[in-house]
Amino acid sequence: xxxxxxxxxxxxxxxxxxxxxxxxxxxxxxxxxxxxxxxxxxxxxxxxxxxxxxxxxxxxxxxxxxxxxxxxxxxxxxxxxxxxxxxxxxxxxxxxxxxxxxxxxxxxxxxxxxxxxxxxxxxxxxxxxxxxxxxxxxxxxxxxxxxxxxxxxxxxxxxxxxxxxxxxxxxxxxxxxxxxxxxxxxxxxxxxxxxxxxxxxxxxxxxxxxxxxxxxxxxxxxxxxxxxxxxxxxxxxxxxxxxxxxxxxxxxxxxxxxxxxxxxxxxxxxxxxxxxxxxxxxxxxxxxxxxxxxxxxxxxxxxxxxxxxxxxxxxxxxxxxxxxxxxxxxxxxxxxxxxxxxxxxxxxxxxxxxxxxxxxxxxxxxxxxxxxxxxxxxxxxxxxxxxxxxxxxxxxxxxxxxxxxxxxxxxxxxxxxxxxxxxxxxxxxxxxxxxxxxxxxxxxxxxxxxxxxxxxxxxxxxxxxxxxxxxxxxxxxxxxxxxxxxxxxxxxxxxxxxxxxxxxxxxxxxxxx
Amino acid sequence: xxxxxxxxxxxxxxxxxxxxxxxxxxxxxxxxxxxxxxxxxxxxxxxxxxxxxxxxxxxxxxxxxxxxxxxxxxxxxxxxxxxxxxxxxxxxxxxxxxxxxxxxxxxxxxxxxxxxxxxxxxxxxxxxxxxxxxxxxxxxxxxxxxxxxxxxxxxxxxxxxxxxxxxxxxxxxxxxxxxxxxxxxxxxxxxxxxxxxxxxxxxxxxxxxxxxxxxxxxxxxxxxxxxxxxxxxxxxxxxxxxxxxxxxxxxxxxxxxxxxxxxxxxxxxxxxxxxxxxxxxxxxxxxxxxxxxxxxxxxxxxxxxxxxxxxxxxxxxxxxxxxxxxxxxxxxxxxxxxxxxxxx
Amino acid sequence: xxxxxxxxxxxxxxxxxxxxxxxxxxxxxxxxxxxxxxxxxxxxxxxxxxxxxxxxxxxxxxxxxxxxxxxxxxxxxxxxxxxxxxxxxxxxxxxxxxxxxxxxxxxxxxxxxxxxxxxxxxxxxxxxxxxxxxxxxxxxxxxxxxxxxxxxxxxxxxxxxxxxxxxxxxxxxxxxxxxxxxxxxxxxxxxxxxxxxxxxxxxxxxxxxxxxxxxxxxxxxxxxxxxxxxxxxxxxxxxxxxxxxxxxxxxxxxxxxxxxxxxxxxxxxxxxxxxxxxxxxxxxxxxxxxxxxxxxxxxxxxxxxxxxxxxxxxxxxxxxxxxxxxxxxxxxxxxxxxxxxxxxxxxx
Lengths: 513, 344, 348
What we know:
The structure holds three protein chains of three kinds. Chain A is α/β, with parallel strands linked by helices. In chain A, the strands form six sheets. Chain A has a six-stranded mixed beta sheet, sandwiched between helices. In chain A, strands 18-21-22-15-23-24 form a six-stranded mixed beta sheet, with helices on both faces. In chain A, strands 2-1-4-5 form a four-stranded antiparallel beta sheet, with no helix packed on it. In chain A, β4 and β5 (about 75) form a beta hairpin. By secondary structure, chain B is mostly helical. A two-stranded antiparallel ribbon of chain B has the order 1-2. Residues about 1-35 of chain B have low confidence and may be disordered. At the A-B interface, α11, α12, α13, β20 and α14 of A face α1, α11 and α12 of B. Chain C: This is Substrate-binding domain-containing protein.
């Protein structure tokens, strides 16, 4: 990676100045400046709603700015459409992968610019060999260009997305949280690719929530807040974390976890959830687990270690091949979500938007959906009571805005997660299963969410937590189960573990001395 | 690592601090946005009424014409109410027209007519429910795609209807049924069929907006996976929805028997398209998750009024069809605009 | 969780209702009492003496409409009258491709004569030519092929004549009435026959300068559409003197709409000749005073012609040795005076 770029010697590859963009009721961008140098990794930071997505969509030609100027290699340009941006050499890899599942890898990579004969006959073989070449360059020669994209893993799909970007003549690649779906070794590979690109003089605009990644590969940082660039071109390695977080949030926040209660407190209570030899063939080996009221138990493991599958099987969303789940000593019907819900189990799923929320609906309706019979008499809903109860539950979790009629999709990730928690709070559930509760939640909002989860436990809930971020599991849970390839390899008090130890366990499967 | 005071605790509002009344915002329900769309459809209807009033003032604005338009709207209207529920849940029912045909001919066979009024009504409703049950079981528990399952029902119900009638028109001889359709049966000037339509509309509206059933329907349509994980029995809900659609078809079949005084296997021709079109221009999302009974009924009224105006002005049916297509496109475009406007 | 017992009880209720309904419904589908003998049997046959055995192939459209159903019945019952005639009848189809396939099957079976009522006359011309080339004479029933080479003999109704006779009948009834108004309830507008009927009707009315056609709406041959369109017409025209309705099936709906509106101030003429219409004419208690025939008995005649062709005979009553190349049937006007004569041919 190049040392500190010298803006006064080399003209910048891209300059965006004074970009504004308004949607009805929202000013998404309020005069943003961005300057990207060829061959650098320029990191874009900001909380959800700060305008990152809008800015990269402007850059990708998907949105037209209301005012402002974009200069590309010294010329003023207008990016009228995604195709116009692509022709200039700007490619974007979106967070929500935009691949066509029914097409093959090669067809996806060359979608829209297929190599053709006579203008319309697709030269499939040529596309496949070109795709294989790009995939090789990306360190993934094992992906078959003729394979259907729908059959690939999330990480492989990410690589295909990247191959698609590279199938064009690119000078600038925008990556929107590319590491979110990746395991640590996949992330290493990603960084290797990014390094290779920048060495070739390609600029990368990199968006991530993970500060440690920005430290590792970033050259400069631009911080967005409320549609403005509050800091432009900070050195990525040297700027103190505290300063960056302060700029993002506007206040001084640390990555803090709430205080843990005395571990002895929970021990004398009867377990509310007991999992006995629960297993699913091909996904995870028999698991035993006990969960007491007031206790937070964490499951740590890599993607594919079976952690989410265990959670979903306990919840009845998947049918176990062996074992059983007991609540207060009575077994749940295997594979029945309704049986689990009735017994007082609630799940905050990993894919919040796809599995948790009714995106067209209000906060109230999202919160009340599991407790409708509580507000109804022979099927008739008492909407006043429903709304009031939902409001009580959301206030208890300090959900913002404090408006039960707000539509859920207008809320930030952290507040959407709170709505899911409020749903189970309202239902009066006793066991809460949390799958990646802080995915897509801003750094600043995470601490608040941690505090909420701990408070719920203090009020007597039993919480089972799955997270791919080891510090989160260690910081929040009382007890930790470490998973590797579908088996529990270690169980310990969270205080007795540290991040390195857990990572060792996760990688090696045996506790190092 | 552990800090005693997290920011969440610092600025967490104490629920009692600003004890806002539970009813705050109560007067501004979520349905408001749908109502706005209904307003634009009301505008279309107002324009149509103006056109009718100007071109044919004497005939169009007469009470008898209002009775006529509402009567013509009532049968397809009842079917559309059922269709609205199905579409709101993210499904589709292509078999409504065929079910109406089957129920109407089954209820008018000579053997059924021997049981009189009750026999005809009961048979129509039960045949509708039966078809809905088959649809529902295939879709909810058989895992079939609604489009395919109801397409199969369309074909087989039409076939069975033809089988029963042998292509013949089955005249109704039960006077108590026939009398319901004539002017003497009007209650305070309102035809009984229109009263049925009104009742179905009101019940449908309440069911969708005021009951757990309606809420679950919307949840299933908005995000079936989320609904399942929230503890809703999605499959049973789907079964009930197709039963409901079948029930509406059965009621509509009886209404058609009253109106036409006969049962014919060609009844209910293209009802599926009319009902879907009315629901969609009314503001129900074809992808599910949002439905409006009021909008659907307005959609039906718009279509019926167009037909009426064209007939009163003695225009060809070809022109009517063109106008209908144009209205669908225009209404959906307007919706898109209003939807996008508030979305970002 | 109070809903658990409630929902399961509901489920049970649905179940029992469905079962009991099923039992009742099987009892209700029965349509038996309705079956009546088709009346064309009474008409004189061409030549009643049995002759050489003839196999006749018959292909028609799907009988989803009263008139088409009567066509099938007429053909079948006529064929049954001749001991030496075997009728090979195909499943009716409205799909041109399917019907072509059916005719080809009949050709392959080497039937002696073919009777074809095409779903679409023009589209089946080629297969008619094929049959003729294979040496199988074709009787083209009603909907005419594009080429005369595709049939040996065409027999069918007269749509133009139907309109003409309806117009003339109405004209005579209203000839002394100044400024008389008539309206027309047409059939499916995208069919050529509908246009021909309307043309004939309009041409007839030209002879009566005191009569003006004030409105025309097209239904689609179904009861439902007849009711809907008629109701609209009645609303649009507060006063008129006569109505011509192209089709007695949709006329059932039209009469229903007229009864519902309580109108009696005009005379109505129907079309095709359904039994229900003839019954109403005979009873003379409604606005329906006449109907113009489009006789489905043409199917019986087609069987006669096919038999004659198969046995190489002419038609009795004609001097020629060969049967004619085309026969256009007369669209008689059935009124109260002559209804008894035609009642046996009425179809339901």
